[in-house]
Structure formats: C-alpha cells, structure tokens
Amino acid sequence: MNQLPLWVEAAVAALLVLSGLFVVISAFGFLRLPDFFLRMHPPALAYTFGSWCVTLAGILYFSMIESRPVLHPWLIIIMLSITVPVTTLLLARVALFRRRAAGAADAPPPLTPHRDP
C-alpha cells in the first residue's frame, strides 16, 4: 500500500471534515427557517460547498495514490452544477404554483395575467 505524505492526509481529512460541517450547518438552517422558499437557498449553497470539498479531497487523494492527475471526480461536481439549479428552479415554480392555486394572500401575482381562450 502506498504511504501518503502527512500533508496530503491532513488536507484530505480537513476537506472531508469541512464538508461534514457544511452539511450540518445546512441541516440546522433548514430546520430553523420557517418557509419553503426561505429553506431552498441556504441548504443548496451549503450542499454545493460540501460537494466541492469532497470532490477536491477525492482529486487530491487519488492523484497522490496514482502519482498522476486524476480528474474524473470533476464529473461529479459538473453534473451537480448543472442539475441542482434546474431542480431547485422546478421545485420553486411548483411551490409557487401551488401557493397561487390555494389562493394564499402572500403569493406574488403572475408576471403576465392569465388569459382565458
């Protein structure tokens, strides 16, 4: 088994612990925020930061083990960067549509008025 330098092990461990901290902070914020729309943004950011930390830890660790640059973990963060905003937008639109359909007073009006055919 390859013995890694101490600085690599420390950097990987720090990135993984930092990732865990981001997720715990995100979960705490998710519990504290009262509204669905308020709950969407901070956890998404914290999970994204956590994913970046895990990806960088994986790149560093496997590059040192292989003794060459290993860049395929970048695919994970690229896919998350593409899919998470789309999913978040769809969830927000569905929640807004449901709030308008329920007749909630605090729902913002549509940008274009609804026209009957």
TrEMBL record:
Q: Check the record and name the Pfam families matching this protein.
A: PhaG_MnhG_YufB (PF03334)
Protein's organism: Sorangium cellulosum (strain So ce56)
Query: Keywords of this protein's UniProt record, alphabetized?
Result: Membrane, Transmembrane, Transmembrane helix
InterPro entries for the chain:
PhaG_MnhG_YufB
Q: What is the name listed in the Swiss-Prot or TrEMBL entry for this protein?
A: PH adaptation potassium efflux protein PhaG
Q: Which GO terms describe its molecular function?
A: sodium:proton antiporter activity
Its gene is phaG
Membrane-crossing residue ranges in chain numbering: 6-33, 45-65, 71-92
Q: Tell me yes or no: is Repressor among this UniProt entry's keywords.
A: no
